[in-house]
Amino acid sequence: MINIQNNYEGSNPGATTVVGYQRYENCSFNPLDKIIELHNEKITLYERMVKEKDDMMARLEKLLDR
């Protein structure tokens, strides 16, 4: 017969110790807000990359027209 026990000694209030790791259940931020923020940053980066590509294409076309 196997005896498995949970040991919560030394754990922080509001945190659960799971095999040496702590999972905090009271986050100080909303994870959904972080996902939205990262998505908006990705869109901004993509738009900047497209603008740089368009600028480069315009410069190359100008060089070819000489």
Commentary on this structure:
The longest helix has 35 residues, at 31-65. This protein has one helix at 31-65, and strands at 15-18, 21-24. It is elongated. Helix content is 53%, strand content 12%. With 66 residues, the chain is α+β, with helices and mostly antiparallel strands. The protein has a two-stranded antiparallel ribbon. The protein starts with 14 loop residues before the first strand and ends with a helix. The protein is built from 1 helix and 2 strands; from the N terminus they run E-E-H. The mean pLDDT is 81. Strand 1 (15-18) and strand 2 form a beta hairpin.
Write the layout of secondary structure elements.
Elements lengths: L14 E4 L2 E4 L6 H35 L1
Antiparallel strand pairs: 1-2
Summarize the structure.
By secondary structure, the protein is of the alpha+beta class. The chain contains 1 helix and 2 strands. Helix content is 53%, strand content 12%.
Offer a few descriptive terms.
12% strand; single chain; 66 residues; two-stranded antiparallel sheet; alpha+beta
Mean pLDDT: 81
Shape: elongated
Q: Which structural class do the helices and strands define?
A: alpha+beta
* Largest sheet: number of strands, sense, barrel closure: 2 strands, antiparallel
> How much is the radius of gyration in Å?
26 Å
Strand order of the largest sheet: 1-2
Pattern of helices and strands: EEH
Low-confidence stretches: none
Strand content: 5-15%
Q: Count the helices. How many?
A: 1
Helix content, binned percent: 40-55%
Tell how many strands the DSSP assignment holds.
2
How far do the termini sit from each other?
A: 86 Å
